[in-house]
Amino acid sequence: MQSLSEVDYLEFKNALDAASVRVSQIIFIGLGVETFIFILVIFVIFLKQHELTYNEEMIQTIDILSLLNFLFVISSIGIGKVLYDRQFSEQNLKRAVSKEFKDNEGKILDLSPPKKCIMIIRTASLVRLAIFEGAAFIGLAVTLQVVISGIGSFQQFYYLNALSILPLLGYIILNFPNAERIEEIFRTRIQK
Question: Distance of alpha carbon 156 from its chain centroid, rounded?
């Protein structure tokens, strides 16, 4: 076999077991839950915030951070797509035929080509999730600073930084893994 694009659909479908799907689902749920917990922490601090500690210099800092957050969110959408697509390039699919995959203890896994396809699909999704998570956490960190400093009490538009979670949540909701969705990714991205 020269490339994973040569893997037969039925072989892939047979290799895609419930455990493989569940691992991908756990990754998606984990990233969603940790983002929700961060939002919850910000909300609790918001409810307890009584003292205003900001000054003009803090407002300028929040302005710069808000601009950087906006740029990062916009660029994360493009960067996420490029890195996701790159996982399915023919060059990467050829390299993966002989690539050794390791478990979390560093032991080499003996994976069949269909199982390697599952790993590539999982990796591509994880890369995109990580990019969106980075953008979300930058926005939430800026929002946390807005809450802690008290700036949001007078200038509520700074809370718009929290909207940086939308690409992450949108991706989780629209692409939550199930067997059919993973099979579709195989057919459209790997088999081409």
Answer: 28
